[in-house]
Design a protein that fits this description.
heterodimer; A: alpha+beta; Rossmann fold; OB fold (Dihydrolipoamide Acetyltransferase, E2P); six-stranded mixed β-sheet; five-stranded antiparallel β-sheet; 9 helices; B: mainly alpha; binds adenosine-5'-diphosphate; binds magnesium ion; nucleotide-binding (chain A); ATP-binding (chain A); ATP binding (chain A); Glycerol-3-phosphate ABC transporter ATPase (chain A); ABC_transporter-like_ATP-bd (chain A)
């Protein structure tokens, strides 16, 4: 079991309040992702759950048990760090076995579990190497191996993929998702990358300046963002915002249209503009368009769309795909 | 014959004083560097600078007060007294070196150990110490060499009973004149042990001094 509950958790470093107060529940077996811009307090929140930082006030419960004052070792959580944080003086085998050794598990059982983890993570042939002799992706696997052997209540990941190159990152993303499908253990995953959040999460927690902006499934956040911040953060490329008269016509202070929700035409439409940069990827076409009113928007066409720099173009938002926001940026 | 036995006495004094002052220094410097590296405060940087600045003062400036203190305490020509002075003189360097080594140990690794269920003792035993040993070892070596070659304090605070090899060398330059042949022989015999030790530990020393520069 691994149900994690935060009750009005606050954290201040000296006078600086980093987490003003968070209430949150992560259900057992859930894959929860904390996402938000750099410096918004994602790591701090994760470290509070881990017990690596003390809360300033509030309570943290794991399976109903208050662990607010418990040291990290007592919380039965495993963590994978951004820097991997492997023990450089130990072999891969010893690294993975370390938490078991700390739990005073019998040697035979330790070896059995290390072998099993190595098999799952394709580390069999590296067990006697030192971390220094491994590639980034292999080190990441060792760090994950060290986390899974303990069979913890929950896994905590702090931007585990940000030191990997793009291709490897996609692979590891899939592997971590598969791991979650197999183990069905609660995972809390921190990232600034909304693509990772969208692709991996059961539940996304969007944070800004230490506050929870919205909690929901990836598609709930995509379809019903609570405010302009979430709307702009979720989805790639970002949502286009248009203010002024065009927005007033929709009865809003500001409207948002996602790049994939424009209908494109070379002859007529709601907004006229000129193509700035045209990115032809084959599978998609991304057009950076300067609208006649002065706004700059991005439009995505599926497949090929034969326009180039300087061409006139007309954009029309798809019906009921216009997001309306009031003056405070809240969804209207 | 007489001089040979003198050499061994001075040699033993050198060994006891340099190793003793080093161990004494580590006893003080390890916890000091430890807290400065892992629990720094806003003043830590200033403190480190101040400690180093004491090394910029000429030692002769404190000779008289220390001499008088030693005289009162009956520590003149006493091995323990010399040990303490050399320890204090080298302390800023030991603390600085250890501080730099400890700073090299990433905090996340210690946190990982904590997450893995290691209490403070296991964290120190299985993670910190193995990672800090190269740094501590090279600090120790350097300090032994510094203490072995130290001449100012050993010459001023010892006469015969506690005099190390530096005093043994100096005894050949007396008001009656310089005894070059004996002086050279004594010097060679004085540096030979440390040279041999340096030779055997040079790999460790170089690794220690460039630790962090080449990962
Ligand atoms: N130990 C600390 N002392 C002081 N401020 C800190 C400390 N750790 C984090 N902060 C501050 O808290 C804020 C959130 O940091 P962090 O949780 O690391 O953000 P994120 O992981 O979302 O990028 C930042 O402004 C950071 O400077
Ligand atoms: Mg972070």
């Amino acid at each position: 079991m691994g149900r994690i509950t935060l009750e009005n958790v606050r954290k201040a470093f000296g006078d600086v309040e980093v987490i003003p107060g968070v209430d949150l529940t992560i259900e057992d077996g859930e894959f929860a992702v904390f996402v938000g811009p750099s410096g918004c307090g994602k790591s701090t929140l994760l470290r509070l759950i881990a017990g690596l930082e003390d809360v300033t006030s509030g309570r943290i419960l794991i399976d109903g048990q208050d662990v607010t004052a418990a040291p990290p070792a007592r919380r039965r959580l495993a963590m994978v760090f951004q820097s991997y944080a492997l023990y450089p003086h130990m072999s891969v085998r010893k690294n993975i076995a370390f938490p078991l050794k700390m739990a005073k598990m019998p040697e035979a059982e330790q070896q059995r579990r290390v072998a099993k983890a190595a098999r799952i993570l394709n580390l069999d042939s590296y067990l006697d190497r030192r971390p220094g002799q491994l590639s980034g992706g292999q080190r990441q696997r060792v760090a994950i191996g060290r986390a899974i052997v303990r069979e913890p209540e929950a896994f905590l990941f702090d931007e585990p993929l940000s030191n990997l190159d793009a291709a490897l990152r996609v692979n590891m993303r899939v592997e971590i998702s598969q791991l979650h499908n197999n183990l069905k253990t609660t995972m809390v995953y921190v990232t600034h990358d909304q693509v990772e959040a969208m692709t991996m999460a059961d539940k996304i927690v969007v944070l800004r300046a230490g506050r929870v902006e919205q909690v929901g499934s990836p598609l709930a956040l995509y379809n019903k963002p609570a405010n302009k911040f979430v709307a702009g953060f979720i989805g790639s490329p970002n949502m286009n915002f248009i203010d002024g008269e065009a927005a007033a016509r929709h009865g809003a202070h500001s409207i948002g249209v996602r790049p994939e929700h424009w209908r494109l035409s070379t002859t007529e439409g709601a907004f006229a503009g000129q193509v700035g940069v045209a990115e032809h990827l084959g599978s998609d076409t991304f057009l950076h368009v300067d609208l006649d009113g002065g706004a700059h928007v991005i439009a995505r066409a599926s497949g090929e769309f034969p326009v180039s720099h300087g061409d006139r173009i007309w954009l029309t938002p798809q019906d009921d795909r216009v997001y309306r926001f009031d003056k405070q940026g809240l969804a209207a | 014959m007489q001089e040979r036995s003198n050499y061994f006495r001075h040699f033993m004094n050198s060994v006891v004083i340099s190793i003793g002052s080093t161990l004494l220094g580590l006893l003080v410097a390890v916890p000091a560097a430890w807290s400065m590296a892992f629990q720094p405060t806003r003043r830590t940087k200033d403190l480190l600078m101040w400690m180093l600045s004491t090394k910029m003062m000429p030692a002769v400036g404190v000779l008289i007060p220390i001499y008088i203190l030693f005289q009162r305490a009956g520590l003149l020509d006493n091995r323990f007294g010399v040990m303490v002075v050399l320890m204090l003189m080298n302390l800023p360097i030991i603390v600085w070196m250890l501080y730099t080594y400890f700073r090299e140990i990433p905090g996340e690794i210690l946190e990982a150990a904590r997450m893995d269920g290691a209490g403070l003792w296991n964290e120190i035993r299985h993670v910190l110490t193995p990672m800090a040993v190269p740094g501590i070892a090279s600090t120790m070596l350097l300090n032994i060499i510094l203490a072995w070659n130290e001449a100012f304090w050993t010459l001023n605070l010892t006469a015969s009973k506690a005099a190390p090899l530096t005093a043994f060398i100096a005894s050949y330059s007396s008001p009656e004149g310089l005894f070059y042949a004996k002086l050279s022989a004594a010097s060679t015999m004085a540096i030979a042990p440390i040279l041999v030790m340096g030779w055997f530990s040079q790999k460790q020393l170089v690794r220690g001094l460039t630790f962090g520069a080449v990962k």
